[in-house]
């Protein structure tokens, strides 16, 4: 489950930090919205796995990646 | 374009055609329209036979094009973490999902997100900018056919926006477009363009999108309204607008 959580997290991270030449920003935003919505709907246990993966990643991330992960954490916290 | 659901655990639905060695590739499999999640056409993409065969299940079945696969990826919107991860990986194939799991960001890069090569994206973005510049003064709201490239949840929610309509001939949903920026609904009498979002994200990219909408609305003499399903989403959107200085987009809660 942790591996799956990391894959989803990786995708969110990519979409949030990719340059406009890598992926069209409108596409990125739409997919981010979809993924965040989907993560919020995960069953409790899987959501917990995702949250743990997120926390672990935040602890080692730097720069834009760190900021994006924090932003995601707040979104998932409902802030 | 044919639609199918190809993101099962096997990465191919039973309706996908069987593939044989040296089987000719149907013409619709070597080019496709690339849409974003909300059905906005980003590019018409051609690709070679080798690429068309990239998506496969153990070599015994082929799925349609990347674009098709993207359209049928509604698994990412519901279900569980496994379905989410499968949807993320299905598009790039076995190698990429493994690389992705190993931490190669680029391997995950094109998964789910529309799969348009950077060059095509750049062209689409450039075309959009040009169109935006040339139409800014006209303030014309046009109606554009939208492909239903979204989850059922999102499609239902967006279809409920005031003024949402469909093309009587094609039966495709239509979206109002202002200065190159698309919305989900249009209240012509009130001069309000409506964008519905199941989830509000606040990444810098999301903020930039809000600023673009605001700019298009200001140039066109309209106001905007984001409709979201919960008070929490509304609060997030309102905070973001305040932080960005966006004052011409209102936020309202419209439950699903």
Number of helices of chain B: 9
How helix-rich are the residues of chain B, as a percent range? Answer: 25-40%
Helical coverage of chain A, percent range: over 70%
Largest interface: A-B, 48 and 52 residues
- The fraction of residues in strands of chain A falls at under 5%
Return residue spans of chain B where pLDDT drops below 50 for at least 5 consecutive residues.
1-19, 47-78, 91-128, 130-137
The quaternary organization reads as: heterodimer
Structural class of chain B: alpha+beta
Structural class of chain A: mainly alpha
Shape of chain A: globular
Give a short synopsis of this structure.
Chain A is mainly alpha-helical and 79 residues long. Chain A has four helices and no strands.
Structural overview:
- With 79 residues, chain A is an all-alpha fold.
- In chain A, helix 1 runs antiparallel to helix 2 and helix 1 crosses helix 3.
- The longest helix of chain A has 17 residues.
- By secondary structure, chain B is an alpha+beta fold.
- In chain B, strands 5, 6, 7 and 8 form a four-stranded antiparallel β-sheet that branches. Chain B has a four-stranded mixed β-sheet with strand order 9-10-11-12. A two-stranded antiparallel ribbon of chain B has the order 1-2.
- Chain B is globular.
Which short descriptors sum up this protein?
heterodimer; A: 79 residues; mainly alpha; B: 256 residues; alpha+beta; four-stranded antiparallel beta sheet; 12 strands; globular
Write the topology of this structure.
The complex is a heterodimer of chains A (79) and B (256).
Chain A: H1 2-17, H2 25-40, H3 44-60, H4 63-77
Chain B: E1 31-35, E2 41-46, H1 49-52, E3 56-57, E4 61-62, H2 66-71, H3 81-90, H4 93-102, H5 105-109, H6 118-135, E5 141-146, H7 152-159, E6 165-166, E7 173-178, E8 181-182, E9 185-187, E10 192-196, H8 204-220, E11 223-228, H9 231-244, E12 249-253
């Amino acid at each position: 489950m942790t591996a799956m959580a990391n894959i989803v997290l990786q995708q969110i991270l990519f979409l949030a930090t990719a340059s406009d030449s890598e992926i069209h920003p409108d596409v990125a935003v739409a997919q981010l919205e979809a993924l965040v919505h989907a993560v919020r709907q995960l069953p409790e246990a899987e959501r917990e796995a995702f949250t743990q993966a997120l926390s672990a990643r935040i602890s080692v991330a730097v720069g834009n990646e760190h900021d994006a992960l924090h932003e995601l954490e707040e979104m998932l916290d409902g802030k | 374009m044919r639609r199918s659901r190809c993101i099962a655990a096997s990465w191919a639905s039973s309706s996908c055609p069987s593939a044989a060695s040296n089987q000719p590739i149907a013409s619709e499999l070597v080019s496709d329209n690339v849409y974003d999640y909300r059905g906005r056409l980003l590019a018409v993409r051609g690709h070679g036979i080798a690429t068309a065969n990239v998506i496969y299940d153990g070599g015994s079945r082929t799925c349609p094009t990347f674009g098709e696969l993207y359209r049928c990826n509604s698994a990412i919107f519901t279900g569980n973490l496994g379905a989410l991860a499968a949807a993320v990986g299905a598009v790039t194939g076995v190698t990429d999902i493994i690389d992705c799991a190993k931490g190669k960001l680029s391997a995950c890069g094109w998964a789910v997100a529309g799969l348009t090569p950077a060059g095509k994206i750049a062209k689409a973005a450039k075309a959009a900018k040009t169109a935006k510049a040339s139409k800014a003064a006209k303030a014309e709201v046009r109606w554009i056919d939208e492909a239903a490239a979204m989850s059922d949840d999102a499609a239902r929610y967006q279809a409920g926006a005031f003024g949402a309509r469909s093309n009587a001939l094609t039966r495709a949903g239509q979206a109002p477009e202002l200065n190159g920026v698309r919305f989900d609904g249009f209240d012509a009498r009130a001069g309000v363009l409506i964008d519905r979002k199941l989830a509000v994200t606040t990444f810098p990219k999301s903020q930039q999108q809000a600023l673009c909408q605001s700019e298009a609305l200001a140039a066109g003499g309209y106001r905007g309204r984001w409709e979201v399903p919960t008070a929490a989403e509304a609060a997030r959107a309102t905070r973001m607008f305040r932080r960005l200085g966006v004052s011409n987009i209102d936020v309202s809660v419209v439950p699903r």
